[in-house]
Structures are given as structure tokens and as C-alpha cells.
Write a structure and sequence with these properties.
It catalyses: Couples ATP hydrolysis with the unwinding of duplex DNA by translocating in the 3'-5' direction; ATP + H2O = ADP + phosphate + H(+). By secondary structure, the protein is of the alpha/beta class. The protein has 22 helices and 30 strands. The chain binds a DNA duplex through strand 1, strand 2, strand 3, helix 5 and helix 7.
DNA sequence: AGCACGCCGACT
DNA sequence: GTCGGCGTGCTC
């Protein structure tokens, strides 16, 4: 490779792109992506630092104008260059522009550019300032006079941005004043600890169980021998995975290394963080969506400076600028939250393994119900594998039973509660114990359909079914479109239209109907618009202020409620109807998690699963709490159908406002890919996306499958090139998705 | 961000 | 004419 693609280490939009430099012969061997380099820049060829983000033989800048790199900066691979290397890797693997990838790994990059408040302060007396102003006016130095007048007007202090925008003062003027000792520039940055005063560090001795100790010893002894790899820690809910994480973190931080702990955003609560804080004190920091840009930036600086060594946060915390990472932990690794839904659509588990390889760290993936991918790798020996099969203390696994709703209907029970669930609820009410009712859906009654023509009422923009809400309105869950419930079917005019199946609001109402004394809390997307309301509901329930908690997925994740002894799953098969290959996996995980909520304290727990498909293997396996049985069936299905992890699958998503153009271009792209004639690559489609329209944009998909991942990446690269070369693609958005989690 | 170039008013 | 401030454009 003759040329290096380099980004300049200056935060300025005009420089936020790739520059190309010739690689001197003696550097060709050593130069790698992510390295920091020095090179001549600009008219004066002043020495500039930057990072290598890639290589090319065909520069898109006149070769005779390309300058040569000076040298590679020494000092190993620094944290930032690790992140640059991550960006380059993500661009390559997941398909995005370098800019999109950089913004993902360096969110600070724009944030400081926007946020950094620089103020100008006059450091001469008022009299001297006035004298200078007079002098400037006299000499007709208009820019200097404007700045001085503004400064004097504002008591000697002025925001730099205001100086530029309002008083049209340019950088050279400010620099000159600074050199002459007339003013100083001050940037006000305070690094705050988001926990200051919240918690205390506690000395405490934890006795690990045999299983926990075996996992810690096994992983740490390999670590000490210099072995770095990825481990699956498969532990049932309540088996104490967190203690294993903390013990390992304690050991590696003693050696001067740092650790990153990823948690799904929804499980990232004060309780979780408190446990880490109590153990590691203010060496721990946290990232979450409620932090302001400024606070988030502070955490990055604190990490870079080395004043913390454990970072807890959602998937973006993976990009914490630590330089000596020893361990990356991903808790609840099966969660969909680890797959990004925006370009680059990266998978945090894969990205963690890549980052670990850059800095010599090990990775631990923890879950009670591992993703099929992770379980697959643990079984073929690629990952280490430890299990925690027993719950801590006296808690035992709950008793799970299944109810066939078809039988209930035959027996004349048309209520949403089966006889079995009803009597269990009645029993708990009498005993004063708590229960949770779980439904994988929100809104009053799901979709509304016509009994004459069978059509469901859909959103005109997004093509998803509208949901009926308690106030009689129909809402779109994607774009928020809302109409009144019509009196007749919009398609055929029949008056026989009605809601179908229960939503959380209706369940709440039914509970109150059958148990008038019950205190009910409801938790779904509608009642938890803000994070405060989410925590408020959970803590109220935890304090025993309600008997019944009704909710969607979010009630079954994290959170221990010792007094909950009954969990009811109202319609277990709803999540099986999702139109993607992960539906069975997701259903099994949800049901297992839901059942695991029961009996976390002294009393034994019970779970009742209602379903129309009791014979389905993911429901059967969940009832028996048998991961192995589920995995055997599921991997057979993936193998038969050629789905991940057996084969790699790549989605190409196209969207445009113009339906005809999209149709024509998608067809052309399909032909282009087919003509590449790649052996052992299967193309599915082109087809309409699961959502044929979203926010007034039409959507199409092409899926490709292959046992050889490299072939798909080759097709991706060729396609990217084709999109740049072929005319008419400007109005069409194209995205790639490796091993998609959800239907597009 | 920071350097050079070219414009424009003031002074020799 | 020439000196120096000031705005603008560009950086592989």
C-alpha cells in the first residue's frame, strides 16, 4: 500500500475527514491502523499529529500534491488510537462511513467541539483597557476596538463564541491580544463524580460459593498465565454472577489494569451501581443516558487521566478511553440492547472481543440464558465456559406450570385469566404476597381488526397495526400517528370492528374487576416515559405499596422482589409471532426470565405460563427451566435453515421517499449482486421490508447468507463501491446489518 | 486550529 | 509607495 488514510487530531468540522499521505519506504513494514503519526500539514507544513485509519493504493487526490508522513509517534498504542482502530474495524465489519464510525467511538469528538465554553478575560485594568480602546479607535483598528468595547461592556469577561458571532472578532485578533498580555482565554472544565455523596465504600467480606470460587480461580489462573480469551459464565438468575465479576475485577485492578462492565441500559439502576461503588469506592464510574453531555465528557476525561479504573455502562461504555484494560464484562449478554440499531450496526459482544484483542484483555459474557451464538462458541471450545447452577442462600428455582388457553376456551372460560392462574392469584391475595403479571405487548388491546373483511387498521406512514388505547384512540407505536377509533371499517365499511387480545391496561382493569381490593401498579412504555417514573414504580412495588405489578418486558429484567411468589405470563406465544429467526430464542429467554422473578426470597415461587401453543419447544423448555433442551432444538433449526451462528447472515436495507425509484434501484442492486456469482452465497429477495413504510420512507431488504463470512464482507465492499460509482443512489439510503437481531 | 494571501486605510 | 491589520480560504 502506497498511501495512508489519516485523520487530523484537531476538533474542527472542516478537518473532520480523511487526508491521504505517502508512506515512506522505511515505515511501510511498521505502519498499522490506529497508530499515531506525525506529518506536515497546511500551507506552512507545520508538524501535525493524527491517526492512521486505513490504507489505499488509489488516492482520490492528485498524487503529485500528496505529502509524505514524517514518523510514527512512539509510546505504544494509546487509548485513543485503540478507539480509532475500533472505528476502522467497525467500518469494515458493519459497513459505515469512517465519520459515522468515529462518531460512535469518540462521542466526545463532537461534544467538546460544541460544549467547551471558552471565555475571554481582560487582564489589564479598566483604565488601561479604555486607553487601549481609544488608541485602537484612533489607529482605526476596528476589530480590536470592537473586542475591547465588548469586553469593557461586559465587565471584562466575554464568551468566545459570542465574541465571534456577535462582534465578528476573528481568531488572529484574540491571539494577538493574548500575546500582548491584554487578555487570557479560560476554559471552564470541572470534572465531577456523578456519585459524589450518594454512596459509601464498605469493607465487607464475601464468601463465595464453591461454584463461584471455581469460576474465579479458573479464569484468574489462566489470566495470570497470560492466557486471554472469552468466557461464558452461565448462571441461573440469583446465582451470584455479579460477585464473580467483582472478585475478578478486584484482582485485575490490583495489577494496575482497568475493567469495563457492560449492562443493558434498563438494568442499570442505582442498586446495580451501588454494589460496585461499595466495593471499589470512587475508582468506579458510570455512564448512562441521563448524564448530560458535559458529565459524560467528564467521565471520559477521568478515565483517560487514570483517576478511575472501573467503568459501568450500556454498550457505548465499551468505548471508554482506558489504556490498560484487563477485563471486559458483558452482563446479560443475550440482550438485544447489545446490538446497535443505528449505523454502524455493531454488536457490542463482537466489538468487546475485538477491543480485548487490541489491549490484551479477557472477556466474560454472563447470562442465565445465553444467546445461541455464545452457547455455540462455548460448546465448540472457542470460549471458556463456567456454570453457576445453584441459587444463593435458601432461594430455590420456582415451580413452573403451563396452561393451554384453547382448553380454557373449550371449558367456557373467556376471561384473560385461566382457572389455574386465577386460583393462584386468589391464594396470594389472601396470603398478602405479591405477584407479577407479564405481557409482551403494550396498549389497550393490541391491533383492531374487521370481522367482515379481516383487515387490521394500520398506520398510513409506517404500515404497522395501530393500537387501541384507553381513551378510545388508535396510536402508531413507531411514529406516534393517532386517530379516533372509527365506527366502521375503513376498508369495507362494516360496523363489526373490534379490538383483539388484551393489553396491559385491560389486564389492570380485569385484575381490579376480579379482585376489587387489589392494589395494582402498571408498568409499560406509556407509564415510563421518563426514567424517574420507571424507578418510582419499581421502588413502590419493592416497598410493598401494591399487590400486583402488571407490565411488559421491562418488569422481568433485573430487580429482585423477595415477596413476589407468583408470576403469571398471560400469552406466552405473542413473541413467537415476530417475523424473524430469533423469535423462539427471545421467547425462551423472556419466559425463563419471567419465571425467575418468582421466589427470590424465603418463600417458594410459582410461575404460570398461559399459551395457545403449549407444544412449542421454547415454551416446553422454559417450563422445565431446561436451557440444554432449548439449545438442542434451536441449533438444529438454525442448522437446517442456515441461520446464525451456523451461517453468517447479512441484511442490506434500502429506503427512499420515492417508491418507484427504490423499486428500480433495488432490482438493479439485486442483479449486480447476483452477477458477482459468489459460490456458496445465498441471496434472499429483494423483498419488501417487514415495515414497508416508516416515516414516509419506503423500505426494501435483501438478505444474504453464507458459511463463509469473508464472502459476505467482500460483497459488502463491492456493493459500497458500486453505490458510489453508479448514478442515482443519492436519494436512497443503504445500510448493512451483520447478523440482524430484528426484522427491518 | 493556524497559516498565507490579498485587500484596504494610514503614514513617510 | 509601503507598512501592518484584518478577513478569507485552505489544509492530503
Amino acid at each position: 500500500m502506497e498511501y495512508a488514510n489519516v485523520i487530523v487530531d484537531i476538533s474542527h468540522e472542516k478537518l473532520d475527514r480523511v487526508f491521504q499521505y505517502r508512506i515512506p519506504e522505511h515505515l511501510k513494514e511498521h505502519l498499522k491502523t490506529g497508530m499515531q503519526v506525525q506529518f506536515p500539514f497546511g500551507n506552512g507544513n507545520r508538524p501535525m499529529k493524527g491517526y492512521v485509519v486505513g490504507f489505499t493504493d488509489t488516492p482520490d487526490y492528485p498524487p503529485e500534491k500528496i505529502k509524505e508522513l514524517d514518523r510514527i509517534m512512539e509510546g505504544g498504542v494509546r487509548a485513543e488510537s485503540q478507539l480509532i482502530a475500533m472505528a476502522a474495524w467497525m467500518k469494515e465489519r458493519y459497513g459505515s462511513t469512517m465519520n459515522q464510525a468515529l462518531k460512535t467511538v469518540l462521542p466526545v469528538k463532537q461534544e467538546i467541539a460544541e460544549k467547551k465554553e471558552v471565555r475571554l478575560r481582560l487582564i489589564v485594568s479598566k483604565e488601561q483597557g479604555e486607553a487601549l480602546l481609544k488608541d485602537a479607535l484612533h489607529k482605526n483598528f476596528r476589530a480590536k476596538a470592537r473586542l475591547l468595547a465588548a469586553l469593557l461592556d461586559h465587565g471584562g469577561v466575554l464568551d468566545k463564541k459570542e465574541a465571534a458571532d456577535r462582534y465578528k472578532v476573528t481568531a488572529p485578533v484574540i491571539r494577538k491580544f493574548e500575546e500582548d498580555g491584554i487578555l487570557v482565554q479560560e476554559s471552564r472544565i470541572q470534572y465531577r463524580n456523578p456519585f459524589e455523596g450518594h454512596f459509601e465504600q464498605k469493607e465487607r467480606t464475601v464468601l463465595l460459593t464453591e461454584e463461584q470460587q471455581a469460576a474465579v480461580d479458573g479464569i484468574f489462573s489462566e489470566y495470570e498465565k497470560g492466557i486471554r480469551k472469552t468466557y461464558l459464565l452461565q448462571g441461573v438468575t440469583g446465582s451470584g454472577k455479579t460477585e464473580v465479576y467483582m472478585e475478578l475485577i478486584a484482582r485485575i485492578t490490583e495489577e494496575g489494569k482497568q475493567a469495563i462492565v457492560l449492562i443493558p441500559e434498563i438494568a442499570l439502576t442505582f442498586q446495580t451501581v451501588r454494589r460496585f461503588y461499595e466495593r471499589f469506592g470512587d475508582r468506579v464510574s458510570v455512564m448512562h443516558s441521563r448524564l448530560s453531555d458535559g458529565e459524560r465528557y467528564d467521565q471520559f476525561v477521568r478515565a483517560r487521566e487514570g483517576s478511575i479504573d472501573v467503568m459501568i455502562g450500556p454498550r457505548s461504555a465499551l468505548f471508554t478511553p482506558f489504556s490498560q484494560i484487563g477485563l471486559i464484562i458483558i452482563d446479560e449478554e443475550h440482550e438485544g440492547a447489545y446490538k446497535s440499531e443505528t449505523v454502524p450496526r455493531y454488536d457490542a459482544r463482537e466489538a468487546a472481543v475485538y477491543r480485548a484483542s487490541l489491549c490484551g484483555a479477557s472477556v466474560i459474557l454472563g447470562s442465565a440464558t445465553p444467546s445461541v451464538e455464545t452457547a455455540f462458541h462455548a460448546r465448540n471450545g472457542q470460549y471458556g465456559w463456567y456454570r453457576l447452577d445453584r441459587r444463593i442462600g435458601r432461594a430455590v428455582l420456582p415451580e413452573v406450570s403451563v396452561v393451554d388457553l384453547r382448553e380454557e376456551l373449550k371449558a367456557g372460560n373467556r376471561s384473560i385469566f385461566s382457572r389455574r392462574l386465577y386460583s393462584a392469584m386468589d391464594d396470594r391475595m389472601k396470603k398478602g404476597q405479591q405477584m407479577m403479571l407479564f405481557l409482551n405487548r403494550r396498549g389497550l388491546s393490541g391491533f383492531v381488526s374487521c370481522r367482515s373483511c379481516g383487515k387490521a387498521i394500520r398506520c398510513p406512514h409506517c404500515d404497522v397495526t395501530l393500537s387501541l388505547h384507553g381513551d378510545g384512540s388508535l396510536k402508531c407505536h413507531y411514529c406516534g400517528y393517532q386517530i379516533r377509533m372509527p365506527k366502521a371499517c375503513p376498508t369495507c365499511g362494516s360496523p363489526y370492528i373490534s379490538g383483539f387480545r388484551a393489553g396491559t391496561q385491560q389486564i389492570e382493569r380485569e385484575v381490579k374487576k376480579y379482585f376489587p381490593k387489589a392494589r395494582v401498579l402498571r408498568m409499560d412504555y406509556d407509564t415510563t416515559r421518563t426514567r424517574e417514573s420507571y424507578e418510582k414504580i419499581l421502588s413502590a412495588f419493592g416497598k410493598g405499596e401494591a399487590d400486583v405489578l402488571v407490565g411488559t418486558q421491562m418488569i422481568v429484567k433485573g430487580h429482585d422482589f423477595p415477596n413476589v411468589t407468583l408470576v403469571g405470563v398471560l400469552a406466552a406465544d405473542i413473541s413467537l409471532y415476530a417475523s424473524d429467526y430469533r423469535a423462539a430464542e427471545r421467547t425462551f429467554q423472556l419466559l425463563t426470565q419471567a419465571a425467575g422473578r418468582a421466589g427470590r426470597g424465603e418463600q417458594a415461587g410459582e410461575a404460570v405460563i398461559q399459551t395457545y401453543m403449549p407444544e412449542h419447544y421454547s415454551i416446553q423448555a422454559a417450563v422445565k427451566q431446561d436451557y440444554e433442551a432449548f439449545y438442542r432444538q434451536e441449533i438444529a433449526y438454525r442448522n437446517l435453515m442456515g441461520y446464525p451462528p451456523v451461517e453468517t447472515m447479512m441484511g442490506i436495507y434500502l429506503s427512499a421517499g420515492d417508491q418507484e425509484l427504490l423499486e428500480e434501484k433495488t432490482k438493479a442492486l439485486g442483479i449486480f449482486i447476483r452477477e458477482m456469482q459468489q459460490q456458496e452465497v445465498l441471496m434472499i429477495g429483494p423483498a419488501d421490508a417487514a415495515l414497508t413504510r416508516l416515516n414516509d420512507r419506503y423500505r426494501k431488504v435483501i438478505y444474504l447468507k453464507s458459511r463463509q463470512e469473508e464472502k459476505l464482507l467482500l460483497i459488502k465492499n463491492k456493493t459500497e463501491h458500486y453505490l458510489e460509482m453508479d448514478a442515482g443512489w443519492e436519494k436512497i439510503r443503504v445500510q448493512f446489518d451483520m447478523n440482524p437481531f430484528q426484522a427491518y
